Amino acid sequence: MNRPYNFSAGPAAIPAEVLEQAAAEMLDWHGSGMSVMEMSHRGKEFISIYEQAEADLRELLAVPAQFKILFMQGGGLAENAIVPLNLSRAGTVDFVLTGSWSQKSAKEARKYVAEAHIAASGEASQFTSLPAPESWQLSRGASYVHICSNETIHGIEFQELPDLKALGCDAPLVIDFSSHVASRPVDWSRVGLAFGGAQKNLGPAGLTLVIVREDLLGHALPACPSAFDYKTVADNQSMFNTPPTWGIYIAGLTFQWIKRQTEAGLTGVAALELRNKAKADLFYQYVDQSSFYVNKVAANCRSRMNIPFFLRDKSRNDAFLAGARERGLLQLKGHKSVGGMRASIYNAMPIAGVQALVDFMREFEQRNA
Ligand SMILES: *Cc1c(COP(=O)(O)O)cnc(C)c1O
After folding, report:
1. Terminus of the chain with fewer CB atoms < 10 Å: N or C?
2. What pLDDT is recorded for position 369?
3. Is domain 263-368 classified as CATH 3.40.50.2300?
4. What is the pTM of this model?
5. Which of 79, 97, 152, 177 maximizes ligand 1 atoms within 8 Å of its Cβ, making it the mutation to test the pocket?
6. Which value, in Å, is the radius of gyration of the alpha carbons in the chain?
């Protein structure tokens, strides 16, 4: 089936093969006589779905054995509270502000920690550049350091995770990788905890992924809800309460889809990384040579997943969006806080979709310049 190209920032496009398989299995999963939505999470059918999903994710992201993979609920915003409840020990936490999402994280953490210290901020550049890690004012004895490794709204991505040890900091690094999880490999030697909602790159809303180093478990504040205590969740294989079974199932199908992807002799996440780089290069190269459109983010931190861009003549925004929609290019409107346009080109977006967008933009520019 020929579907339009969907540039939504999230909930976002899911590979058609995944949706087709889910549709084919909707009424009767593997001869069980049940939809996945109707199964007990403790039955052997669902346990097999869960175990396969966990094993596939561990393989795809090369998650080391000393990290637990937790499937939770609440989304990225709930993790802004759940992380400090589990890791802060009510002490000081360092935040690096690189856009809206890290700002939200710092604000929420203030409810739970002695101090949410701003170690660095890109706000003076209107979040168009990343403060260099060497310039971060990290606190002594912080419980952890929080970054958003891909800022979905401002279109800023860490091309390399900071090496806190090299900066003289022993605190674990927490990354919000909601909007670029599985788009590139993760250097787990630099990470204590990673969290992300599934609805950008892994599946439907309602599933939250947490990957946490074992030694960070077991220090939750007394007020932490049991269902959000990482140790409780880990000790119960994410089944202390009913997990988001449908989300885990669709994410599992997505993991299988990622495993099947190949590019230049690479497979899985490495193949997707190569493809995502080619997609982003194609788009940025076009925008940079155009005097009609602009992206203001510094070249060394431009996101491969979320690309905010602006028509220099704002009065043409509505015509641009209408023309794009007519061409089967959906959900390009920018986030309300920054305006303009945004192309989210997650794993499920093929290079042909980015090419179709660039072709449309070129035509629109020629017609209107
Ligand atoms: C989407 C997003 C979130 C919020 O996720 P919710 O599921 O809405 O809570 C948090 N952080 C980042 C980086 C995001 O892109």
Report:
1. N
2. 83
3. no
4. 0.98
5. 152
6. 21
Length of the chain (residues): 369
3-state SS, residue 6: strand
Asked if residue 77 has its Cβ within 6 Å of ligand 1, the reply is yes
Distance, in Å, from the CA atom of 286 to the CA atom of 305, rounded to the nearest integer, reads: 16
Q: Is 200 a catalytic residue?
A: yes
Q: How far is CA 257 from the centre of its chain?
A: 17
pLDDT at 1: 66
Tell whether domain 17-258 is in CATH 3.20.20.70.
Answer: no
Percent of the chain past pLDDT 70, that is, above it, reads 100
Per-residue model confidence as pLDDT tens digits over 117-148:
999 999 999 999 999 999 999 999 999 999 99
- The sign of the CA dihedral 263, 8, 291, 298 is negative
Residue 306: strand, helix, or coil: strand
80 touches ligand 1 (CB under 6 Å): no
Would you list the domain boundaries of the chain?
17-258, 263-368
* pLDDT for position 255: 98
148 lines ligand 1 (CB under 6 A): yes
Residue from 176, 229, 231, 279 carrying the catalytic annotation = 176
Which atom of ligand 1 is nearest the CA belonging to 152?
15
The closest-lying atom of ligand 1 relative to the alpha carbon of residue 208 is: 7
Work out the number of other CB atoms within 10 angstroms of the CB of residue 58: 16
pLDDT < 70 stretches in the chain = 1
Give the integer Cα–Cα distance in Å for 98 and 18: 33
Task: Tell me whether residue 29 is one of the annotated catalytic residues.
Answer: no
Which pLDDT score, from 0 to 100, does residue 16 have? 97
Active-site residue identified among 56, 68, 200, 231: 200
- Give residues with Cβ within 8 angstroms of 367, minimum separation 6: none
Distance CA 112, CA 84 (A): 6
Burial pattern 304-320, b for ≥16 Cβ within 10 A else e, equals: bbbbbbbbeeeebbeeb
Active site residue 246: no
- Catalytic choice (56, 68, 94, 101): 101
Give the containing element (helix H, strand E) for 93. Answer: strand 92-97
Would you say 101 and 262 are in contact if contact means Cβ atoms under 8 Å apart?
no
